[in-house]
Amino acid sequence: MDKHILILGGGYGGLRIIQRLLAANLPRYTQLTLIDRMPYHGLKTEYYALAAGTESEAKLRVAFPEDPRLKVQLGEVTSIDLEQNMVHLLDGDPIPYDYLIIALGCEDKYHGVPGADQYTHSIQTMPQTRETYQALNNIKPYGQVAIVGGGLSGVELASELRESRPDLNITIYDRGESILNPFPEKLKRYVSQWFHENDVDLVHKANITKVEPQILFNHDQPIEVDEIVWTAGIQASRIVQALPVEKDSMGRVALSPHHYLEDYPHVFVVGDCASLPHAPSAQLAEAQGDQIAQVLLNMLHGEPLPQLPKIKLKGVLGSLGKKHGFGVMGDTTLLGRVPRVLKSGVLWMYKYHLG
Length: 355
Description:
Layout: E1 3-8, H1 12-23, E2 30-36, E3 41-42, H2 47-52, E4 61-62, E5 70-74, E6 77-81, E7 86-89, E8 95-96, E9 99-102, E10 106-108, H3 116-119, H4 126-137, E11 144-148, H5 152-164, E12 169-173, H6 185-197, E13 200-203, E14 208-212, E15 215-218, E16 221-224, E17 227-230, E18 234-236, H7 238-241, E19 260-261, E20 264-269, H8 282-300, E21 316-320, E22 324-329, E23 332-336, H9 337-354
Parallel strand pairs: 1-2, 1-9, 2-5, 9-20, 11-12, 11-17, 12-13
Antiparallel strand pairs: 3-4, 6-7, 7-8, 10-18, 14-15, 15-16, 19-20, 21-22, 22-23
Helix pairs in contact: 1-8
Protein name: NADH dehydrogenase
Family: Belongs to the NADH dehydrogenase family.
Keywords: FAD, Flavoprotein, Oxidoreductase
C-alpha cells in the first residue's frame, strides 16, 4: 500500500525528520511531500546577523535534499483538517495524507500591546528579516534603534548591529530585572558589561504599553526612535493555534509520549508548535525530530513503538558580535572567545552535514 507522509515546514525539526527517513530503510511506495513557503531551508538561528547586515542571505540558505522519494511543494498552509486527513493551501488543491508532520514553527507574540504588530520589525521569517535589514541599514547616521526583548534574539541582534553600525544609538528594553533572564548570574553580568563597554543601553523593568510609528511607549512615556525591532516572545503558528486539540498557554500542542496527537496517532507535531518541557530551540526541534522519525519508521514497518528516552539538550551558545560570545554547557558557563568559536563551528558542521 502506498503511504504518503506530508511535512508542513522545512525548518530544523521538519528537515531533520526528512533526513532521517530518507537515510533509513523506508518501505517501498512511501512518498514524502514537504510544503514550505521558501525553496530552501533558512538558518533561522542566524537571522539576527542578516538583519544587522553582517551576513548575506545566501549564507543563511541551505538546499533541501534531492531524492526521488521527496517532493518539495512551495505553498502557504491555511488550515489543517484532522478529520478528513487534508491540508488546505492558499493556492492549489487540498493535499491528503496518511501521516502528517506539523513543523510550522512560531511567530511573534505581541502580548496585546496596541500597534506592536504594525509598527515594529521582526526576525521570525526570512521575508520579515529582509525588511528589518533594509530598515535598520537605512537609518540615518546616529539614529535611534529600540530592541524590545532582552532574550537571546534581542541580545544577539543588538551586539551584531553594534558591529555593523557603530554610529547607531541602540537600546534594549527588557521586562525583567536583567537581560537573558533564565541564564546564570555570571553570564548575565558578563553580557551586561559587554553592552556597557560597547555603548548599548539597557532599560530593565520595561513595560511597553503602546507602539506608534517611530514612537515606543515605555510605562506610557513616549520615546522617539527611528526603528523598533520586536524580540519579546513567541507563540505557536496560528494554523496550529486553530486546531481543536489541547494546548498550553503558548498555544503549543499537547502530545503523547511518542510526539503524536492523542486522538490522531498519525499526526505528529515537532519544534516550536509542540508543548515540551524545554524552551523552544533549533536543538530541541532536531532532537525531537530524531525521535519522531524513529516512531514513524516503526509504524511504517508495523513494528511496536520504541521506548523513547528523555530529550537531553547539549546547552546554549550565543554570540556578542563576531569575536565574543557566551554559553552554558551542563553546569559550565562559557564566556569570551571560546563560545563564539564553538558557535561558528556548530553552524559550519550543520551546514556541511546538510550540504
